[in-house]
Amino acid sequence: MKKVIVDADFWEVFPEATIEILSVSGIDNHVTEENEETYHQLLNSAAKEARNYLTEETFSQNEVIAQWRQAFTTFKTKKGARSSIEALLKR
What domain of life does the native source organism fall in (predicted)? Predict the structure, then answer.
């Protein structure tokens, strides 16, 4: 496994944070005719579950987005860059 380095600035901003790492090997996630329907069902199920967290009409006013945006603003990013959770839920 590769070494994971967490910048000291991270701990100043999030002193209570924990870092969790999951390493997985031997998984083939290529879509084939045999497993295509399974992948479609998984994606549809995840999309329905995600809607439970989007309770406000204005996307940025949803609590889950607001929390991530607040944390995301503490990091230096390119202008207009979205947090991963926001980018995923927008899709």
Answer: Bacteria
Residue 15 inside a domain? The answer is no
- Structural domain total, the chain: 1
C-alpha distances in angstroms, 75 versus 14, 80, 83?
A: 11, 13, 10
For the whole model, what pTM was predicted?
A: 0.53
CA distance 29 to 90: 23
Chain segment 71-86, per-residue pLDDT in tens: 777 777 677 666 676 6
d(C-alpha 1, C-alpha 53), whole Å: 34
| Full domain range(s) for residue 65 | 50-91
Tokens of residue 37, six digits: 């329907």
Decide: helix, strand or coil at residue 42: helix
Band the pLDDT of 52: cuts 50, 70, 90. Answer: confident
Asked whether 59 and 65 are in contact (CB, 8 A), the reply is yes
